[in-house]
Amino acid sequence: xxxxxxxxxxxxxxxxxxxxxxxxxxxxxxxxxxxxxxxxxxxxxxxxxxxxxxxxxxxxxxxxxxxxxxxxxxxxxxxxxxxxxxxxxxxxxxxxxxxxxxxxxxxxxxxxxxxxxxxxxxxxxxxxxxxxxxxxxxxxxxxxxxxxxxxxxxxxxxxxxxxxxxxxxxxxxxxxxxxxxxxxxx
Length: 186
Hints:
Layout: H1 5-22, H2 24-36, E1 58-61, E2 66-68, E3 77-82, H3 87-103, E4 108-113, H4 117-126, E5 133-135, E6 151-155, E7 161-166, H5 174-185
Helix pairs in contact: 1-2, 2-3
């Protein structure tokens, strides 16, 4: 049996495919691909924008300090559900950090991790991310229920969901910044 160029290429293809699916290299490829193909978030159509009816939703930080969404009523709120093991989540984190850095004094950012506290702390430290991360053991308001991560919601000052996005997005886009500026002026 002779080894042909076609057979060698097939072997290389399958080795790469196995590496992408079953090794940490695959995670990095998925993150890179998600980052490359992430676009800007889109504002929901007027008829799709709904009000959060129950702001009594509790969450905690890594130190066990309690927080309640009630405390943020009347403010622009940015809620992101994510995990360290999720490639699209990891892909959008650098853009989220940039947005957070510029808007942290005006917008309430709530990053909710579906992960272990020690993994999140290590991830934040390794990547020099400065935003606070929270964890929820309580029932979400029905309007914030989601089935995939990352899922991100942006609420205006009256509590209406203006953006609901799943998958990796470029949150540091000019489009997102213009929207936040507009929401802050309302």
